[in-house]
Design a protein that fits this description.
The chain contains 11 helices and 12 strands. The protein has helices spanning 12-30, 43-49, 55-63, 87-94, 157-172, 190-202, 215-224, 236-249, 287-304, 307-325, 339-352; strands at residues 2-6, 35-38, 66-69, 99-105, 118-124, 141-145, 148-151, 177-182, 209-214, 231-234, 259-261, 266-268. The protein binds nicotinamide-adenine-dinucleotide. One of its GO terms (biological process) is tricarboxylic acid cycle.
């Protein structure tokens, strides 16, 4: 499996170095034969190539088996004409990575704010309120006068259907419960269609229990009792917001894994951003990126029916539980290790088992 690795901005280089150490260890233990092609995106690419991402990089990623993308300083990238392209959106759109799978769970030995839980947010990734990806060319956010902005949201039957199917298929491998999250009381047509299509897809999965929640109330339900939920399916922006909440409820945003998956490609990427407030201090939690790397291996294993990759993904999850229980963690979740030390200890754990 050839993986293109783009460390990213802010805490990206630190957390990606730790993740690579773990991937090398897991590759050796399970004989995965992982090959890494290190390249740049974001600020480093802007400096070297005049653009945060380049067509050559896209071609390389297309011919690889997977991509690990570090967090990006997307807020800094304002003008595409100057090469300031949001790399996350670029790969999600160009590779049609429509399903953003964001698991959150509590861990033994780690304080949790709302009781134990284990859930997955399945977020639509290619349209919705994200103005940078929902039309063919240009952006769908417009300055009409200096004081008036219009931002358009796109919702399509095709995207609703495929994200709903991803959620139900995932639920069949878990506790068989899907919660649809929407704002159909206000966005009556778009979110109305989203619910209808989710309910239609649900008919193909009669074993799966289905309910639905309005997004604002959902924040209260999740904060109060996250254990009520198994798989949560929702549109792009709601999923982005909700998954930061569920990651933080599990202990830290630094635990939030994220896989962006399409039919032919997948990209592991932590749920959080480039965290400039802690960059370069060796204190960022690398576990979010390590979980995402495990998800990428699992995706590859499932797609190609490769049991070693599936076993490797499970081993990463198990090592995560053990590392947290042993306190081999960064300080955001109560440990004393730096980013590099936490990665090294995790990699060692993978080799010893
Ligand atoms: P952020 O997610 O980077 O950080 C939010 C808070 O969580 C900060 O206090 C940060 O220190 C903490 N945090 C994040 N990751 C952590 C980790 N691994 N370990 C410990 N603490 C962690 O959000 P922000 O500060 O609002 O955004 C910073 C930049 O990241 C912006 O340019 C934003 O656009 C971008 N961003 C990128 C992505 C992405 O690449 N997928 C996602 C979200 C935000």
């Amino acid at each position: 499996m050839k993986i293109v690795v783009l460390p990213g901005d802010g805490i990206g280089p630190e957390t990606m170095a730790a993740t690579l150490e773990v991937l090398r260890a897991v590759s050796s233990r399970f004989r995965l034969g992982l090959e890494f092609d290190l390249d740049v995106a974001g600020h480093e690419s802007l400096r070297r190539h005049g653009a945060t991402v380049t067509p050559a990089l896209l071609q390389k990623v297309k011919s690889a088996d997977g991509l690990m993308l570090g967090p990006m300083a997307t807020y800094d990238f304002k003008d595409e004409a100057r090469g300031e392209i949001n790399p996350s959106k670029f790969f999600r759109k160009e590779l049609d990575l429509y399903a953003n799978i964001r698991p959150s769970r509590t861990y033994p030995g780690l304080q949790h704010r709302a009781g134990e839980f284990d859930l997955v947010v399945v977020r639509e990734n290619t349209e919705g309120f994200y103005a940078d990806r929902n039309i063919e060319s240009g952006g769908s956010e417009m300055l009409i006068t200096p004081d008036v902005v219009i931002s358009l949201r796109r919702i399509t039957r095709q995207c609703c259907e495929r994200i709903a199917r991803s959620a139900f298929e995932l639920a069949m491998t878990r506790r068989r419960h899907v919660s649809i999250v929407h704002k159909a009381n206000v966005l009556k047509i778009g979110d109305g269609m989203f619910i209808d299509i989710c309910r239609q897809v649900a008919r193909e999965f009669p074993e799966v229990q289905v309910d639905d929640f309005i997004v604002d109330a959902m924040m209260a339900h999740v904060a109060r009792a996250p254990q009520r939920f198994d798989v949560i399916v929702t549109t792009n922006m709601f999923g982005d917001i909700l998954s930061d909440l569920t990651a933080e409820l599990s202990g830290s945003l630094g635990l939030g894994g994220s896989l962006n998956a399409g039919k032919d490609h997948a990209m592991g990427q932590a749920a959080h951003g480039s965290a400039p407030d802690i960059a370069g201090q060796d204190i960022a939690n690398p576990f979010s990126l390590i979980v995402s790397a495990g998800q990428l291996l699992g995706w590859h294993g499932q797609r190609r029916s490769l049991s070693a990759f599936l076993a490797a993904a499970r081993a990463i999850d198990e090592a995560m539980i053990a590392a947290i229980q042993a306190g081999e963690t960064t300080r955001d979740i109560g440990g004393r290790l730096g980013t590099a030390e936490a990665g090294r200890a995790f990699a060692q754990r993978m080799l010893e088992r």
